[in-house]
Amino acid sequence: MTGAFLRDGDDAAVIDVGSNSVRLVAYRIDGRSMTPTLNEKVMAGLGRDIGRTGALSEDGVDIALRALRRFATLIEALKIDQVFPVATAAVREASDGQAFSDMVEAETGIKLRILSGEDEARLSALGVSAGAPDAKGIVGDLGGASLELIEIGPKGVGRGETFPLGPLTLMRGEEIDYVRVSKRVAEVLGGTKLLGKRGGDFYAVGGAWRALGRIDMSLKNHPLGVLHHHEMSRAQVLKVAEVVRGQSKRSLEKLEESAAKRAETLPYAAVVLEHVMLAGQFDRVVLSAFGLREGVLIERMSEAALAGHPLIAAAEALAGRWTRTRGFGRALEEWIAPILDGQDNVFPKKREEVLRGAAARLADVGAPLHPDQRVEVMFDLILRAPLAAISHEERAFLAAAIHHRYTKAPPRHAEAYTRLLSDERQTAAAALGATLRLGADLSGRSEALLASFEAAAVDGRLVLRVKKKAAHLVTETAMRRLEAVAQWLGLTAETKIT
């Protein structure tokens, strides 16, 4: 591990030794975008006995060491130089935690950074901000052994608190006693200075809480199975907690796939979330797929990299796997602005500008596919792509725009399209897609040729100005594209050679 900033194009890896799991995630770094390229997890249960013995689980230590030996070998084989190994509550709190860390270094060469509770909370909040730059409220990261709470807002990360409320800490090797556990959680949270019926948003991080989110999706048949930025009202949280409370371990294993993997710990996670929601009187929970590991990487990024918007960076990273340059997407964003700026916004103005910028960068992502394949797969591809800083409604809008980049027809059999987008947003997405198609097809997706054309909405007309030397590029197909855009926008198409 080096002290230098991460650079564009770097491969980086985070090793996260937690109380319940040991995980390796490798990332490709593109600006401030972090795209996972390898993700391996072993449920070691290091902290399973800590509440009873004060020490790490012997079986857990053996499982963790074997996993870390494998991780070290993978990192060497993949030639990843930027490696950030961290350990959290179990190793921090256990009487033999330092001895375990020394053993890991001796046997694998991996030197663990044992995080304090304060550092763990701060890095989790940094990770949340990487996936939700406008986040304002409280971040809660529930690990196997502890709960970290920390303020987050426009000025960054604020105060933090750590509580021994992880499922492994609350468990006693017996069937859950909800009265005992609820009383214990209430007592511990009674010492918080951060909650205090503050309302607003609570950002939930951690595998157990993500499993609760999947149960919520299942209960209400949510049309998009993406956990990042899935939202639950306080009433929905309390309903999920009630459902979990009414299930036996065997029933939980049948309820939902992710619940099956955490059947023992899920009831404890539900009780903790229930008490957090009541103590804070939060209006909603926002699930974050970004957390500690992403925070570790954000900490290593330069100010220049962090200056970019995470959704734009993620769109560029995704498109960059297929397109020749990032330049065309950036040029296309500027080119479409005069066409669309006079239209009514269907999202807040600044958000719509970001969504248009992301769409412009993704406008060529279907280039390697057969034309028939593009129409079939583009909506689902963008809907479920590894994008940051985007809500479920915005995902559906962006996916619809890129779908309409290739066809006039709406997505087929797409429940997320019909349930997440109003008629107005469906129309706006179609107009944006048609506009992207016009710019891409006129220029052959060449940044230099795109500069030969200007288009703008003027007094009820969509005027395309073409430089005389490029007049031969305006084909019948291009004219159809112009007419399609004008039709979606309620304008009359006009072409001028200049």
Describe the structure.
The protein has 498 residues and is an alpha/beta fold. Helices cover 49% and strands 17% of the residues. It has 23 helices and 14 strands. It has a 6-stranded mixed sheet with strand order 8-7-6-9-11-10, with helices on both faces. It has a 5-stranded mixed sheet with strand order 3-2-1-4-5, sandwiched between helices. A 3-stranded mixed sheet has the order 12-13-14. It is elongated and about 80 Å long. The protein starts with 10 loop residues before the first strand and ends with a strand.
Instruction: Please count the helical segments.
Output: 23
Number of strands: 14
- The strand order across the widest sheet is 8-7-6-9-11-10
Structural class from helices and strands? alpha/beta
Main beta sheet strand tally, sense and closure: 6 strands, mixed
Provide the low-confidence segments as ranges: none
Rounded radius of gyration (Å): 25 Å
Please give the alpha-carbon distance between the first and last residues: 57 Å
Q: For the residues shown, what is the average pLDDT? A: 92
Beta-strand percent range:
15-25%
The general outline is elongated
Assign a percent range to the helix content: 40-55%
